[in-house]
Amino acid sequence: MSLPKVGSAGPGETNAAEGAALKRNFIYMAVCFSANHGAVTSVIALSSSFDPTLGSYSVGLLYGCYVLTAMLVGSYVISVTSAKRVLIVSLAMYAVYVASYLLAAAVPATAWPAILFGATVGGVGAGLLWTAQGAYFKINAKQYARAMGISEESATGLFSSTFAAFYLGLEVALKITGSLTATYGSDAGKYAIYAFYSIIAVGATFVIAGIREMVPEDNNEPVGAAPPPGCTKVNTKALTPQHATPFSFLLLLDRRRYMG
């Protein structure tokens, strides 16, 4: 069940109730997205301690599938479905990647096929996820700007900072949890952390189904990707997934080097 609409605002009009509802909707999406993605990045950070060789192969496969999917089919899939639907499916695919480590921990004999399969599914999901997040971000911010009677740049700046707070905050919290468990926990505790991350990833996937369906007002408008969190002075109309996603990939690699 999606969050309800509270009226609408026409040109030159404001609707504070609808604006507040749109802001809540965005926060709802950001929390679910960040929790799921935080579980994924936490598993990536632990992958080398699980099995250095397998961890390297799985991360390489994950990012390789991510790049190919984002560049080749990301925008097309959204154009024939919707950003909300792609977000749900993509987070579910991310959850498969996280759960593959839980399966490998529970049944060590399945480690290689389970984790490599999970990395493939998760990589495809990542390629769709970031394109869908950008499209959803753009439409939500545009509708919020209209409802509140502010510029799209102001709405984008507010939503960027909000998304960054949840995205980085949950990622750091989940990584610290995993790191402490892996360092000081018992063997059972080290395996239990994968169960914890799997619950977070699967739970976020189910909960995000409650966000609104965001439909572009102009169906001929290209599906845009949101700027990286914190970048407010960016012409989002000029950004297409084909241009933004490889840059996002470099950001992920750079962040992984310092935070992973």
Helix fraction by DSSP (H/I, runs of at least 4): over 70%
Record field, number of beta strands: 0
- Secondary-structure-derived class: mainly alpha
Q: Let me know the CATH homologous superfamily.
A: MFS general substrate transporter like domains
Measure the end-to-end span: 36 Å
How many structural units, i.e. domains? 1
Q: What summary fits the major beta sheet?
A: none
CATH topology: Growth Hormone, Chain: A
SSE sequence, one letter per element: HHHHHHHH
Q: Mean of residue pLDDT?
A: 83
Q: How many H/I helical runs? A: 8
Radius of gyration: 19 Å
CATH class (first level) name: Mainly Alpha
What best-fitting shape do the alpha-carbon axes yield?
elongated
Any guess at the CATH architecture?
Up-down Bundle
Strand content: under 5%
Question: Unreliable stretches, pLDDT < 50, 5 or more residues?
Answer: 224-260
